[in-house]
Amino acid sequence: MIEAVRSAMDVSMAKDDNVVVFGEDVGYFGGVFRSTQGLQAKYGRTRCFDTPISESGIVGTAIGMAAYGLKPCVEIQFADYMYPAYDQLTQEAARIRYRSNGDFTCPIVVRMPTGGGIFGGQTHSQSPEALFTHVCGLKVIVPSNPYDAKGLLIAAIEDPDPVMFLEPKRLYNGPFDGHHERPVTPWSKHDLGEVPDGHYTIPIGKAELRREGSAVTVVAYGTMVHVALAAAEDAGIDAEVIDLRSLLPLDLDTIVKSVTKTGRCVVVHEATLTSGFGAEVVSLVQEHCFYHLEAPVVRVAGWDTPYPHAQEWDYFPGPGRVGRALAEVMEA
Q1: 179 is an active site residue
Q2: Is there a contact between 230 and 319 (Cβ–Cβ < 8 Å)?
């Protein structure tokens, strides 16, 4: 996925001279995860450059550049570090189109590694996506595989509005399914690890069905897509798994169609349970599918606590927890 993200930026920079990439350590060093490695050497220091350690400064600069016609794709080194930039994102970037009556847009992309599973502790493992989905004017993307990551990132860079692009860091090197006791499977052995060269896009706001089933619908995104697939296999339940890919805009039609068919629904995300994005999905399912539901909708999520380093795999919603939720809704 690291290579796919890098390829998306490379393709976009080659196609459009207005695309610029910057952030902490993204230039000479190539980023802490090497997602921007080689871009500065290829495009020069004016189009791929390092910034001071100031998230507010990074995003504020990107907004100013965007207002003057550039297309910044910036990196926040970890999603946990985005809070100093939250004011710029919510009060400025998200509102430029509205407050200028369409005279200005803000075509910026803010990339950030998100989620846990790497023993990063409380300041390198957060999943703050719900904080952005509450803000009118932002788009929020969470890919689950390299193929989608490249196509969605190119689409985000070409989008005229601000896009939050959250990259599950536990998926950078393989499709992690939550079985931490097993060897990591590389993307080279997964169908969605095959990423075409050159330019292609995936529509923002369109979910993807990862597994067809008739017994229960599982709605997930990011790393939890692979956990949900593993849980369904482990439990032997005929689950239909939906990969949202885009949280805002949300593909509600795909969710409603599936839940109407199955009559049951489990929503899985890694972020804290209370006020997580899963609460919005549950509300929408109840609103649109109430008369088709055979059981209450169940959420599987992180605890309502800072991400615990010592209890990483208890906090992390693994296939065991998801499997128990599947069994619960099937028995209801």
Answers
A1: no
A2: yes
- 8 A C-beta contact, residue 295 and residue 264: yes
User: Could you identify the residue written with the tokens 């009556």?
Assistant: 101
- Among 124, 134, 180, 309, the active-site one is 124
Q: Give the Cα separation of 157 and 235 in Å (integer).
A: 40
Q: Do 107 and 136 meet the contact criterion of CB atoms below 8 Å apart?
A: no
Greatest CA separation found in the chain? Answer: 60
Distance of CA 271 to the CA centre of its chain: 12
Q: Which amino acid is at 232?
A: A
Phi then psi for residue 261, to 5 deg, are -75, -45
Task: Dig out the tokens for 111 from the structure.
Answer: 């990339």
Please list the rounded mean pLDDT of every run of 10 residues in the chain (332 residues): 98 98 97 97 98 97 96 97 97 96 95 94 94 97 98 98 98 95 91 95 98 98 98 97 98 98 98 97 98 98 94 94 97 90
Which DSSP state fits 185?
P
Give every CB contact of residue 15 below 8 A, 6+ residues apart in sequence.
199
CB 293 within 8 A of CB 263: yes
Residue type, 66: A
Residue 125: CB partners within 8 Å, gap ≥ 6? 80, 115, 116, 117, 118, 307
C-alpha to C-alpha distance for 241 and 232, rounded to whole angstroms: 9
Give the chain's count of helices (H) and strands (E). 12, 12
Are the CB atoms for 268 and 229 separated by under 8 Å? no
Q: In this structure, what token pair is assigned to residue 18? A: 């207005």
Contact 228, 220 (CB under 8 A): yes
Rounded-to-integer distance, Cα 324 and Cα 231, Å: 9
